[in-house]
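sry for the spam today, last one i promise. struct tokens for design, 174 residues
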């Protein structure tokens, strides 16, 4: 039995599930987290080498993979720029049919760090465009203006972010 194309509410759920890919609503950040310095291991530019995210779709897990090539640039002042100019699509399978989310453009954040958590204090979608393709139909989605926190570990050469079923691995490029 084939599944219908995702409804608007399912699309919203998919965007919410893409939280750690920089695309979902967030809870407010407490004042205690504002102003924490960006650690030196985060500062610079990172290129994503792989992402795996599992979301719930019609009560079943849907695993999305991709986003390789997305770059994140962190400044000491707490600015992060995520660029999708060279990112691959996120891909999964729903009912035997391909499900694809493509992101293009960039998004700018004001961020703060508390221990190993990266908080997104403000989000500006800039030129970000999100396109969902299912059963041969494209739907253009509105980029959200807030993002939930993610945990991270970083070293001089590697960054891993995780949260809400998402795990992204990055290598330093600058």
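last one done:
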């Amino acid at each position: 039995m084939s599944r219908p194309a995702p409804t608007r509410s399912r699309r919203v759920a998919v965007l919410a599930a893409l939280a750690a890919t920089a695309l979902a609503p967030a809870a407010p950040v407490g004042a205690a987290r504002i102003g924490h310095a960006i650690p030196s291991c985060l500062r610079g530019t990172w290129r994503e080498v792989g992402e795996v995210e599992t979301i719930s779709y019609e009560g079943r897990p849907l695993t999305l993979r991709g986003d390789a090539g997305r770059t994140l640039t962190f400044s000491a002042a707490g600015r992060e720029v995520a660029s999708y100019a060279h990112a691959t699509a996120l891909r999964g399978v729903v009912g035997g049919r391909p499900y694809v989310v493509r992101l293009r453009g960039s998004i700018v954040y004001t961020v703060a760090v508390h221990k190993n958590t990266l908080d997104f204090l403000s989000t500006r979608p800039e030129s970000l465009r999100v396109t969902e393709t299912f059963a041969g139909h494209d739907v253009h989605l509105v980029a959200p203006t807030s993002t939930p926190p993610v945990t991270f570990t970083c070293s001089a050469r590697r960054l891993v972010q995780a949260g809400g079923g998402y795990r992204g691995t990055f290598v330093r490029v600058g």
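DSSP finds one helix and 13 strands in the chain. ok im logging off now
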